[in-house]
Amino acid sequence: MSPSRERIVTFAGGGRTPSGRMMEPSTKGAIMEDKTTTPAVQVSRLVKRYGDMVALDYFDLEVRPGEIFGLLGPNGSGKTTAINCILALLAYESGTIRVFGQPMTPTSYALKRRIGIVPQDVAVFNELTVEENIDYFCSLYVPRKSDREPLVREAIDFVDLGEFRAFRPGKLSGGLLRRLNIACGIAHKPDLIFFDEPTVAVDPQSRNAILEGIQRLNKAGATVIYTSHYMEEVERICDRILIMDHGRHLALGTADELKGMIDKGERITVETLDLTDDALTGIRALPFVIDASYDGRELEVSCRRGEHNLVDLLAALREDHANVGHLTSRPPTLNDVFLELTGKALRD
Fold first, then answer.
1. Where is the ABC transporter domain positioned along the sequence (predicted)?
2. DSSP state, residue 259
């Protein structure tokens, strides 16, 4: 019996085993009250090398209890290495890692019982049914079957797989497989859950259900560390976001705080059919304009931060006697922040 994709995760008895993961979430910004100030995860000056390559370069991370924490970085930035070090799956050269105030080591079995992992690749057993898969992965943390039975039922209900409980994974759609993956990882009710791109290649309806599920889990008390290449997801559910690259901590804050760190402001699109070359040159020379392009139908202007950009742009268009149709003004996005800080798109 082998899983459809191999995944290595920690489990309650120690060691390493293939595993899979979903159960109850919070509304954005609803950080659960904690009676202490002890971080759920604290990583300090972590260094990890692979030969001559530095994967983590004095990397710092602090996750508060009860928050949904977004961890963003381009491919090769060190996200997976950092997570594997936190889970004590990788040895590292120097630095400290503490989970719920305790040092995290390969033999920290009590801490591992409090952790759930939902990997990017679905890793469940094709020979087992939905219910049997969830029961198996829950058994890695909860050995007594009588204790597991209510947890398995609750996990199935949580991901809304009740009518599919007797199905094998091969009969499930991509979205249902993702839900099964989540159920396998959270059936034991962990206090800390890692979600690694849980919505890859799923339909919009399933994606929305998964995000709502993560928020319910958070609202029920779980601390969540979330990675994704979908910026709108991160902005929707994460309380704080850390951007990393080349193994380093680049920026940390809420989505609005991160957007305030960059010079780029709104992007204005104006529908106009008669913009002259001289007018375009004049618009590009405006002090708040970063870039402007015109395709004969739409003028698109990327602006620096400012309060009167739209008014000043429309004044310039009036001076040129350009007819203006539909116009839109879009604020900066997390992707703009990411591009300015790392110089690359998130999927690079």
1. 41-271
2. H
Q: pTM of the entire structure? A: 0.81
Q: Return d(Cα 266, Cα 300) in angstroms, integer.
A: 11
Percent of the chain at pLDDT > 90 equals 74
| Separation between Cα atoms, residue 247 and residue 90, nearest integer Å | 15
Q: Answer whether 205's CB lies under 8 Å from 175's CB.
A: yes
Torsion sign over Cα 303, 304, 307, 308? negative
What are the pLDDT digits (tens) for 175-191?
Answer: 999 999 999 999 999 99
- Residue 247: both structure tokens together: 């193994």
Query: Tokens 């994967």 correspond to what residue?
Result: 55
Domain count, the chain: 2
pLDDT band at 345 (very low <50, low <70, confident <90, very high): low
- Residue 241 belongs to what domain range? 41-258
Q: Do 243 and 268 reside in the same domain of the chain?
A: no
Residue 220, classed as helix, strand or coil, is coil
Clarify whether residues 235 and 283 are in a common domain.
no
Q: Indicate whether 340 belongs to any domain.
A: no
